[in-house]
UniProtKB/TrEMBL annotation:
The chain crosses the membrane at residues 360-382. The keyword Signal applies. Residues 390-448 form the Alpha galactosidase C-terminal domain. Keywords: Disulfide bond, Glycosidase, Hydrolase, Membrane, Signal, Transmembrane, Transmembrane helix. Residues 1-21 form the signal peptide. This is Alpha-galactosidase. SUPFAM superfamilies: (Trans)glycosidases, Glycosyl hydrolase domain.
Amino acid sequence: MTSPSFMRPLLALAMGHTIVALDNGLGLTPAMGYNTWNDFRCSPEMNAKAVMALADKMDELGLVKLGYRYLNLDDCWQLEELSDTGELQPDPVAFPEGMKPVVDYVHSRGLLLGLYSCRGWKTCAFRGASSGHEAIHARQFAQWGVDYLKHDSCWASGERSAAFAQYAAMRDALNATGRPILYSLCGWSSWYSPEGAKLGNSWRISADCDEWANVYVAVRTNELLAAYAGPGAFNDPDMLLGSSPNAPAHLTPMQVQSQFSLWAVMAAPLLIGSRLLSMPASDLATYTNDEVIAVSQDALGQQGRVVWSNCPPYVPRDNWWNSPWSMPFDVCCMWTRALATAAAVLFTMAATCRRFAPRCGAYVLLPLGLFCALYIAVLWSFRPRTHECQQVWARPLADGAQAVCFVNFAQAPARVACDANCLGAMGFSKGGTVRVRDLVRRVDVPVTTLGDDALAVDLEGDGDSALWRVLERR
Ligand SMILES: *[C@@H]1O[C@H](CO)[C@@H](O)[C@H](O)[C@H]1NC(C)=O
């Protein structure tokens, strides 16, 4: 859906927005909360009652007092069509009394409420979206008392200046309401980062995380983007995946921990995207570790950087609107199955239709079938994969310590060590005296001097990690 290049100046002119820095006072540390997408998708079970139950559960699990304050409804809270006057319409079956009472209830439990819309002409799930109706929708959000907006990018131009202009239109509309509303862009591409801070409080940089390979892609993409993040403006590598085997997307418990540690070091939003009402104990233990949360919420708001890596160079790829790496894995499977069925049906028809019309198969149906088959082959060959490699990430903290994350993406176990260059990249000197704490196990590590191999860990294969806090005593 990319516009031809000769149209770019025209589009920029038509959109006519000047970009000013966002200054809404929100999101000075990465947002924390929960999002319904990987829990409910578009199930009719995502309704007013469920939202209230989710708010109760977030409180009961102790998540609210740890800082998980945003309860975010993703796509499918609204109808397919806008009203005659261009307003978003809450699904009257799921939300019979509208959004206001739901928002009020969520607020009464000490939480904040997030809603979802899209800069395109429909949302990703074909519901009513905000293109051209930004002001009306922003006013609705403000009237309902909404605190957060996730703004998606489906069914919209993939051309950069057009995308920036549409995101700016909603930014300005939210600002004009006078209500501080955290603005979270969802354009799944790394090219948002250089403009991100002017447009929103956070911006998605890569495809949906719905399997470990996509977590790897998000991490590798984010390693190039640290310079663009800071207080009030963060790169967003997508939500946290839990390990519930019956959720639409999930990781192993070990990978859940690694994603959480990496997200803390990358100053990424911590939005739980998994079964909340039946969360596995191991996920809850991971997400409620206040020593890891403290890294995420560190006041410096600096994104971590890679200080050691043996991974191959990585070049982020643009997402097409209908590419497998830009859609949730289960949606991609559905899409692939549909295409495979279409191809099979077309081949069968091609084999039989000549009885009615000579050569119909050869000219029409066979090429169509071949196109479907080719498309599936392309989808398959471009699916994300991890590399057999390891990395060390480090994030500077306000008290002068470094949060250091060692991660093993390879299938086999590996020893990951921070060498002299790695120590130097963190500003540590060899021979220095340190205090080291393992934040995941919550124990002190018996390392006192930075000698050879002082900072090294043995990790399992397939996504194991360690997260240490290293403070040099001077
Ligand atoms: C609107 O933008 C101005 C200028 O950047 C800023 O000072 C103000 O805080 C913003 N208001 C809201 C509600 O975001």
